[in-house]
Amino acid sequence: MFKRTFNDWWSFKTANTKEYTHCYHNYPAMMIPQVARALINDYKPKDGIKLLFDPYMGSGTSLVEANICNINAIGTDLNPLARMMAKVKTTHYDEKKIKDYFSFIQSNLVFYNDSFVENRDFSRISNHAFWYKQEDLLKLSYLSQLIKQCEDCQDFFNVVLSEVVREVSFTRNSEFKRYKMSDKQLKNFSPDTFKLFETKVIRNIKGLSQFNTVKNSCSSKIYDFNSVTEIPSDIIGEETVDMVITSPPYGDSHTTVAYGQFSRWSNEWFGFDEAKILDNILMGGKKYKEVSFQSNSITPELEKIKQIDSKRYQEVISFLSDYYHSIANVAKCIRHGGVVCYVVGNRTVKTVQISLDYFTVETFSQFGFKHINTIVRRIPNKRMPSKNSPTNEQGKTISTMNNEYIVILQKC
Ligand SMILES: C[S@@+](CC[C@H](N)C(=O)[O-])C[C@H]1O[C@@H](n2cnc3c(N)ncnc32)[C@H](O)[C@@H]1O
User: Fold this and answer.
1) What does the DSSP assignment read for 149-211?
2) Among residues 184, 189, 251, 302, which one has the fewest Cβ atoms lying within 10 Å of its Cβ?
3) At 374, which CATH number?
4) Beta strands 51-54 and 241-246: pairing type?
5) Same domain, 366 and 385
6) Which residues, judged by CB distance below 6 Å to any ligand atom, belong to the binding site of ligand 1?
7) pTM
8) 226 with 276, same domain?
9) Domain count, the chain
10) pLDDT (tens digit, 0 to 9) for every residue of the chain, 412 residues total?
11) For 389, phi and psi rounded to 5 degrees?
């Protein structure tokens, strides 16, 4: 319906995706930095670019790439952990200060004794005795205690701690959802909390060091607004954005990627609000009774899903309705000649594939954009389920997300 071009160059099969601050913290469905970089290089508006916006910034990949290319950026995400990561990844911390604080932390770890731990109240972490060994909770608490003394560098170390908080829990690390390890796995599970922390700090200092070789005065601003409802005009005025590079969710968090569950360990550890209800407030979390968008491009697919399973149909139209309203709001912020790049996945629901790339082109077209290109790329190294069970019948799986669609449009 809308032209797609398959191009294997965009798969970046052998690329190092952990350059600069991209190594800091794992996050579900991260964008490949090389994709953002190539989009900026090849598709930025010819008459100049000052501001890039990412309405679903996640860990901040496109913001980091914008700043490296001397472009200011604004990002928003409803997930507090994502905001912390994006902030830290786009901050040029003083490397010497970070190293000094790290030495201070290390020298205290050498003499660790659990009687040093001040905060022993873990009630903010739901079911903590089920998910953690007490000795690990105490060690994590001690790390938090030391990090609090790192003044203006606390969040640099908190991002590291966040990964450790998840990795020493009894969750299966290969899953985004909260599944406890089997008894057999638990028997052999004895993570070294302090060692993990130290190894990750060393890794992140290397990333920081590379990021600090970038010399310009560009920066990123991080927000928590929901583009589905409104983009505050005091943050982004109408027609002020030159370029959008983003990868939105491809469905609601309950039936696709569970950003809230993945982040719950950290969001609870740091006492962030909404840790428990995050998946309900992300796009598609609120249920619509009826379609709240205009589309012809995917009507047959939606009709098929409706006939097979009305509940799944309602989930799909709820997500698409939110997505439609978000695009309507984003479209207003783009200046004439501005470019939007949406990296989307076409998921399969009940054996029916939903062409989110068509829907994206069609919706932006309704708001005065022309379609430039849709590049289809393979996803060799994105952490995504490549098979799912579309009918929920045991053992019946089909391959789902092997390709990604980079939809590029320009405002007329
Ligand atoms: C595919 S991820 C983005 C990944 C990002 N490109 C990266 O490289 O890390 C999608 C993000 O959308 C966020 N999200 C979902 N619904 C949202 C909404 N209504 N407003 C803002 N962010 C939302 C999720 O929390 C998640 O972080």
Assistant:
1) TSGGGHHHHHHHHHHHHHHTSSB-TT-SS--BPPHHHHHT----HHHHHHHHHHHHHHHHHHH
2) 184
3) 3.40.50.150
4) parallel
5) yes
6) 27, 29-31, 56, 58-59, 61, 76-79, 82, 226-228, 247-249, 259, 282-283
7) 0.94
8) yes
9) 2
10) 799 999 999 999 999 999 999 999 999 999 999 999 999 999 999 999 999 999 999 999 999 999 999 999 999 999 999 999 999 999 999 999 999 999 999 999 999 999 999 999 999 999 999 999 999 999 999 999 999 999 999 999 999 999 999 999 999 988 888 899 999 999 999 999 999 999 999 999 999 999 999 999 999 999 999 999 999 999 999 999 999 999 999 999 988 999 999 999 999 999 998 888 999 999 999 999 999 999 999 999 999 999 999 999 999 999 999 999 999 999 999 999 999 999 999 999 999 999 999 999 999 999 999 999 999 999 875 445 444 444 444 444 444 468 999 999 999 9
11) -110, 90
Task: Please tell me whether residues 250 and 321 are part of one structural domain.
Answer: yes
**Tokens linked to 13:** 């099969």
Ligand 1 atom closest to the CA of 29, numbered from 1:
1
Mutation probe of ligand 1 site: the residue of 52, 57, 254 with most atoms within 8 A of C-beta: 57
The first and second tokens of residue 79, run together, are 């997930």
Q: Do both 307 and 382 map to the same domain?
A: yes
- Concatenate the DSSP letters of all residues of 46-100 into one string: TT---EEEETT-TTTHHHHHHHHTT-EEEEE-S-HHHHHHHHHHT----HHHHHH
Kindly give the number of the ligand 1 atom that is closest to the alpha carbon of 260. Answer: 25
Residues 265 and 390 in one domain: yes
Range of the domain at 288: 5-91+214-411
Please identify, among 207, 227, 255, the residue that sits at the C-terminal boundary of a domain.
Answer: 207
Terminal Cα distance for the chain, rounded? 21
Minimal-distance CA residue to ligand 1 atom 5: 58
- Indicate whether 177 and 198 sit together in one domain: yes
In angstroms, the Cα distances linking 224 to 233, 277, 398 are 14, 15, 36
In contact, 275 and 289? CB cutoff 8 Å: no
Same domain, 81 and 150: no
Looking at the structure, do residues 218 and 335 belong to the same domain, yes or no? yes
The structure tokens 């057999």 sit at 184
- Where among 178, 207, 236 does a domain terminate? 207
